[in-house]
Amino acid sequence: MRERGRGQDARSQWGARGLRRGVAVALAATTVLGAAGTAAPASAAPAVAERRARAALPLPTGPYAVGTTDLRLVDPGREDPWRPGRARELMISLWYPASRPAYGDERAPYMVPRAARHFGGPDGAAAFNYGAEPGRTDWSAVRTHARPDAPPLLGAGPRPVVLWSAGLGDPRTWGTGLVEDLASRGYVVVTVDHPYEASEVAFPDGRLATSVFPALAAQPGLDIGALLRKALAVRVADIRFVLDELAALRTDGRLPAALAGSLDLGRIGMAGQSAGGFTAAQAMHDDPRIKAGVNLDGQLHFPGPDGTGVHLGGVAEDGLDRPFLLMGTESPDSGPYTGQPGWAAFWQHTRGWKADVTLLGSRHGSYTDAQALLPQLARQGAVPAEAVRGDIGDVRPERAVLATRAYVGSFFDRWLRGHDDHLLDGPSPRFPEMRFEG
User: Fold this and answer.
1) H/E element holding 286?
2) Quick check: 31 pLDDT over 60?
3) 56, 84, 285, 344: least buried by Cβ within 10 Å?
4) Position 1 pLDDT exceeds 80
């Protein structure tokens, strides 16, 4: 990667937006920390005596009911980069239009209980990344709006496929509100976990793969730039393996025939938040099977070994020749492409269609489920108000969710389905909180 500068500017640091606080807590003595919110101390004990808080995801807006199914994938040709000596294995979920809706307890859980306990505990991403008080939220009680293993809705032919990658340290579930909405609009969405980087990944045999990043980040002399470059390379390799597996799944019987037949692998898009947005851009750069992509507030550069400086990612240096949407926030190290070195280089070098929007009043977590869930939890005392403001800003939660869904849906409708509602032509009076940058 080519180096651009060596300053201490927040824009050169992954601490707030790529590394997230899950690792940043362990890096508190280094210069890599950003300023996005307040992390709960890792040693905090769960508040078991209090009634545990609960929260609900917003309803999908599309016309279709949603189904979901989970699948374990094993890449026998690749050693796990974080756990040498074993093959790389992943968990994915498919979200798709279903033949009938789910009600009440029929709805799939947001997380299985063992993953929920870790996610909400003192070593989980809820505390480290989002400032939630350990043990105060019943994450296993959160329900999606999808029916597990539901028969897919028939009659529409193959559907476009969108891959989803969450931020560094976050599990694949931390984007379910947007994912369900896309499925309700007619997409098959494939969410991908990145084991041993994500806070936790639950496998069907009962294993829980927890993140190695806090331990790595605590090592003396850590080259933070090298760690983050490795993380991106692992993520991109995971995505390309999933693309290979999707082709195999159409014929090998691991999915019901109707669901397998609904995958249109000639119309593949990808979206991701934070490091997931960088992953979407870089995977699209490396793999022509991805036709369109969305980056939700993910930087496109790395810091140097000491956490400072700007080293452009490959996709920033080369740009793309296919449609791509940048969606920024008003975090101190975000905003329009003109103020971000990686985004500016990407903008300059990209030859395909591109657009850039900024959600006013938002912060880095505004494009995740934090936007809908944290305010509910804060009202029950499970998340400090200052952590909520640091994570999602002061934009109205329901408007932020609606705008995110509208812009992501409009983009994929335009480039994967040929349906253009012209929302991305310029500023829209429908969404005054979304500033059109170009």
Assistant:
1) helix 275-286
2) no
3) 84
4) no
